[in-house]
Amino acid sequence: MLRFMTNLKVQEVTFPSACRRILLFFGKNSYFQNEVLVKEYVVSAAGYRASHSTPIQWSQHYEREAYRRQTHDNGLNFFNWFCGHHLAGSGRIAELIMDDLWPNVLKYYDRKKAPGDGSHRRTGSFKMPR
Questions:
Q1: Longest dimension (CA), the chain
Q2: What is 77-103 written as a DSSP string?
Q3: Residues 6 or more apart from 60 whose CB is under 8 A from it?
Q4: Predicted TM-score of the model (pTM)
């Protein structure tokens, strides 16, 4: 599903309390109708604590499958992370996205010389942090 993601942004909000928002922008896809999904975290000395996420508007043909996965799959996957506010590791994922991936995205983009091409044109692929 992340292959439909077109952009990622992080917003800092200081009023009424310190929080950060992860905004995930999506192109048209067969899973859900939202163009933007937002997950909000309260920031404290203890780290990030999930506080709110956009309700996902599931496509009619995928809604039953999404519900099944959320209720029967306790594993860490995108939608369990996004929808669950008490998922173990959620704060760590937020920390990686907001403190490392967002400000330093180029270090995760592998740049290689295009094959058979002497020019400086390059191709690349994205590597997720571990």
A1: 56
A2: -HHHHHH-SS-TTHHHHHHIIIIIITT
A3: none
A4: 0.73
